[in-house]
Amino acid sequence: MTSSSLRPSYKEAQERLIKWCQNVTRNYESVKIRNFTSDFADGLAFCAIVHHYFPDEFDFNKLNRDNKQSNFDLAFRIAEEKAHVHQLLDSDDLIRGQLDKKCVFTYLLTLYHGLKHFETNKLVLR
Fold this sequence. Notes:
The chain is an all-alpha fold. 60% of the residues lie in helices and 0% in strands. The protein is globular. Keywords: Coiled coil, Endosome, Phosphoprotein.
């Protein structure tokens, strides 16, 4: 078996990442994730994912779906400060509705790895 056959296809990777997002956000009633575009358009999905790992950083229930700029900025700032995940997406582009599926996928994959790394280090330090 070659190493490339061990890696999931892009479609499989997308499906796995969507499942991870759904799992992490399952207790957030206002967040339903089925895709990498419209379901991330108001920033709440990003906030829910970050909040799942850093619940003491902000009160998720006080976020407003209509305050997209604040939602994006909050999620990206906490992800960078706490999990060292650099902001690969531009809030202004996202607010203008320029959600590129592959860019959102790439950021979420980076976020996934950063949060898993954070989680592993947290367990080691206990």
